[in-house]
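USER:
Class, as today's exercise, take the chain set out below, and explain how the chain folds.
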Amino acid sequence: MAISKNRTLRVRILVKAFPQPSKAHEETVCCAGISEDGTELLRLFPIRFRRLPKEHQFERFDLVEMTATKASDPRPESYRVDEASIRLLERDTLSDEAKVRLWQPFIAPSLKQLYADNRATQRSLGIFKPDPDSIKFTVKAAKDADAADRAVAEQVRQMQQSSFLEDPLTPLEKPELAFGYRFTSGGHSHDPLIHDWEVQEAYRQYKRRYGDAALDHLTRMYGETIPTRNLHLVMGTMLAHPRTFIIIGLLRSGFDPQELAKQGSLF
């Protein structure tokens, strides 16, 4: 009898990346989360998040169950999800301290260490804290779509028009700005962009609330307020660039993960 390669995963969601057009799947979101038992940091894809039933659309730190298979790509954390199996089990009920204790074990001492782990074991997900007082929020004009992006978008448009099974999704507003952080880690400078859905959604909400002053408010929040709350960056590689880490999520808390780790070591 064949052995099933499927796994039933119960995951606390940490990250939802900004949706990307897909030739095969219309529009997908790549997510990252931690297994319910706290032992694995996982990459979950392809998820057509806006196609999920409303009762199973999840937010950060929600507990979600799904059936998944180890993905064929070489990144050890990657799992291909059966979208129809996704079930929201529990909305976020964790305390701030419990959230930090959940992700604290996956903190690397530096981005340099993440790159070293990547070369040694193909590790492609991790968390780290930039050097103190080195972080600066950056804003750039988003580049125009290149030829490949336009080709995918056109195929998605045609697929939506020809589908008799599902109504086409309302196209998401193409980001007009790209946001990132400039920082040092272990004395080395880095300038990656943020691919988390959160920052683009925050900017959209700020535009609705503050109009022309939206960018000023966003810059104060992400450049001044958030960095004071033990900001840690969730880093991941892309399949096409398995040796390059980008920011896929932001974690912040009133609790210092290092202090919590020391407290935990006493018991």
